[in-house]
Amino acid sequence: MSDSEDRDVDEDLSEEVAETEIASEGPPEIEFYGGDLVSAFPLAFFVLWAIVQSGLLRIGDTTGLVAGMLVSLIIGLFLVKGSWRGYANTIFEGMTRRVAATAVVAWLWAGMFAETIQVGGFVEGLVWAANAANVGAGLFPAVTFILAGLLATGIGTGYGTTVAFTTLFFPAGVLLGANPVLMFGAILSGAVFGDNLAPVSDTTIVSAVTQDSDIGGVVASRFKYAILAAIIAFIGYLVAGPAMPGLDISGQAQQIFVENSEPAGLLHLLSMFVVIGTAVAGRHIVEAISWGIIVAAVFNVAFGLASVAEMVAFQAPETLGIAQSLAWLPFVELVPAGETGVGGSLYAGAQGFFPLIVLVLLIVAGAQIMIRGGGFAALQDWLLDSVATNVRRAEVTMVLGTALVNAMITINTAAEIAIGPYIARLGERFNINGYRRANILDANTSALGYIFPWSGGVLVGFAVIQGLPNEYEWFTQSMVVNPADVVLFVFHGWVLVIIFLLAALTGFGLEYTSDRESEEVARV
Amino acid sequence: MSLLEKYTKGWSFRTNKPSFGEGDEISVFITEIDGETPIARIGDSKLRVHNAPGNLVDKRVLLRVTEFDESEHVGEAEYVETVGESAF
């Protein structure tokens, strides 16, 4: 390339950067054929795509939603009056918003932490605890709820918890004589608890950052609702456990437990408390989770729970000379030439969030187009003028609106990102505190994502249970729990939904922006 | 705020019409404009804001309450400074 061509490219680039900056400083006034509400098209089409993909066809593939959002943004171009440049620049403007960047950073760190305590045998530690407690069939669902809640609070992913617990605790409970439907309900309840409360949960992170609040403060303010619901749900499982008959199978539940038990894995309860403690104490979430990762890694190596290579590994070709000479390093592994790569929990944990990261960037871009095109204001004004006319009605609208969106978009984090801007604006117009808004947003998102039979959380558990007849000879097809049967037995989810509806109607837990400031400036 | 306070705050039923004392400095969002006067609606209470620059809706501002009617839940406040923006 010649010097003059270089200069042309530089000038084009600087012009583009300048235009993007102008677009982000003031409204580019994107005009749509058919009026302001048409600016909602990219998001509306995405919601439709999500309903068809996840709701109708039951495909829980986040990258599929990324494709949906990309297609939405392309079709949206054709609805713009005049030049498409403003629309295109608004995509950049949205994707570079701090709300998206904050979620991305928190997710990457949370992913690394969750995976590191998992390779360190946290699940196996919980299995050991269940076995040591030696409870009977009647109490088993209640104990399962507590332990699943602990795992979900540690690893922040309700889906991961559901998979781990339906793999190990579900068949063990059924063998013991616990009711299968109640067992599945208890597992999903634990998943709801952790998804809702854990500082490393993707939904907790989204709820905090979209409401301009610090994650530690959100967790502390959320504790009252979560613990109230958990106590009621726990009592529910204690009562229903002995009341609901199980199946009579001659088999040894203990065998499943003994094979998958590692008491030292419980050390990761400490790793979990390090993250929660430092985050709630007011440390930056990156700092809090970094400390958690360091503590977890030290435990893994010091107590032989996981090797360095299980956390980070360079898998180099065994034929390469330099790789052979470095193979003594604990993080270098020699593998056949076609199987090279980087691996370990830090790698896999971060990678697990890549599809969701791209999705959040695109959804925020779609929301920005709706803001710049006037659709956001139009819908907001309608809600404020006709529905949310006082603070109680505003909060009920927030609770029911979140429920509605979660019923349609069954991948709960995606639903939360889509409704987040409305919760923020509606709440701000009544000066409802950011912590309260984050709590309303996350409660229904966490709960309903594990209640509706078509929701992602229920379906991942169902997929595992469906595979159990191939795993165990004694597990017959008739023991598979249908997603529709478990709906009523996700006690923690239901109680959480009811508590928030009552809280909105009565003002329980309500705080105003004037009552206290969330620490968003320092934290986020 | 201590760790314990963070967990224990908000265990109560909060009124939908909060009250403010004269001289209170509060950080709130400006929620609407009545004619030329910006209004900060906190729950279902309203403060009319004086000496404010234009176009403050959805901006977070520091206000000093100058007057508050406990029975009507309306009051007057002085604009001190703008401290933040809407989350969206």
CATH superfamily of chain B, by name, is Nucleic acid-binding proteins
The proportion of strand residues of chain A reads: under 5%
The N- to C-terminal Cα distance of chain A equals 43 Å
Q: Could you estimate the helical fraction of the residues of chain B in percent? A: under 10%
Radius of gyration of chain A (CA) equals 24 Å
Q: List the domain count of chain B as a whole number.
A: 1
Mean pLDDT metric of chain B: 92
- Show unreliable segments of chain B: none
Question: Biggest interface: chains and residue counts?
Answer: A-B, 42 and 31 residues
Gross geometry of chain B: globular
In quaternary terms, these chains amount to heterodimer
Alpha-beta content class of chain A: mainly alpha
CATH first level of chain B? Mainly Beta
Named CATH architecture of chain B: Beta Barrel
Order of helices and strands of chain B: HEEEEEE
Strand order within the widest sheet of chain A? 2-1-3
Number of strands of chain A: 3
Side-by-side strand order of the widest sheet of chain B: 1-5-6-4-3-2
| Tally of helical runs of chain B | 1
What would you call the structural class of chain B?
A: mainly beta
Q: Which runs of chain A of at least 5 residues are low in confidence (pLDDT < 50)?
A: 1-26
Explain this structure to me?
The complex is a heterodimer of chains A (524) and B (88). Chain A is 70% helix and 2% strand. Chain A is an all-alpha fold and 524 residues long. Among the domains of chain A are: 100-307, no CATH class; 308-347, no CATH class. In chain A, strand 1, helix 16 and strand 2 (332-335) form a beta-alpha-beta unit. In chain A, helix 7 (140-155) runs antiparallel to helix 11. With 88 residues, chain B is mostly beta strands. Chain B contains one helix and six strands; from the N terminus they run H-E-E-E-E-E-E. Chain B has a six-stranded mixed beta sheet with strand order 1-5-6-4-3-2, with no helix packed on it. In chain B, strand 2 and strand 3 form a beta hairpin. The chains are: A mainly alpha (524), B mainly beta (88). The A-B interface holds A 99, 210-212, 216-217, 220-221, 223-224, 280-281, 367, 371, 376, 390-392, 420-421, 424-425, 428-432, 434-436, 506-514, 516-517, 521 and B 1, 3, 6-7, 9-16, 18, 20, 26-29, 31-32, 40-44, 58, 60, 84, 86-88.
